[in-house]
């Protein structure tokens, strides 16, 4: 079993592919014949998901959809201590989740041809983000 903490640089609000950063942080992945890799974000206003890694318009459409589904400045929100994007960010993160699990096969993440790991930054100025990557299985 291997575990690595990494700090992702601050990114603007939106959906960002971080697959390469995850792979660079855990070179021991190549040792596994079969296993599981969990990628976990240590924040409540950003999330992780797996989706299209080739066409950047998919990530723009994700941002558009979530902004429509969870609008800012809703007068019913009670939690707005850190600004109008605060509570919507928590809701979006809850909808998408704080971790992804990916099979490991022959030293590689068994992602599909067009799949990548997304950092979903839901804050206008979220800052750097902490990620914990854990891999376990047969070596």
TrEMBL record:
Q: Which SUPFAM superfamilies match?
A: YjbQ-like
User: Known InterPro entries for this protein?
Assistant: UPF0047_YjbQ-like, YjbQ-like_sf
What's this protein's name? UPF0047 protein yjbQ
Coiled coil ranges (UniProt) are none
| Matching PROSITE patterns | UPF0047
> Which Pfam families would you find in this protein's record?
YjbQ
Family as reported in the entry's similarity comment = Belongs to the UPF0047 family.
Against Gene3D superfamilies, the record matches this protein to: YjbQ-like
Origin organism is: Mucilaginibacter polytrichastri
């Amino acid at each position: 079993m291997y575990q690595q903490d990494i700090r992702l640089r601050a990114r603007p609000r939106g959906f960002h592919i971080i697959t390469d950063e995850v792979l660079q942080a855990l070179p021991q992945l190549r040792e596994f014949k079969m296993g599981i890799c969990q990628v976990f974000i240590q924040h409540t206003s950003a999330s992780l998901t797996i989706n299209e890694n080739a066409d950047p318009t998919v990530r723009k459409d994700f941002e558009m959809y979530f902004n429509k589904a969870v609008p800012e400045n809703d007068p019913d929100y009670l939690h707005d201590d850190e600004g109008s994007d605060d509570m919507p960010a928590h809701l979006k993160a809850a909808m998408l989740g704080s971790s992804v699990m990916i099979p490991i096969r022959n030293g590689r993440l068994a992602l599909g041809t067009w799949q990548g790991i997304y950092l979903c930054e839901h804050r206008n100025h979220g800052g750097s983000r902490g990620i914990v990557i854990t891999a376990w299985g047969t070596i």
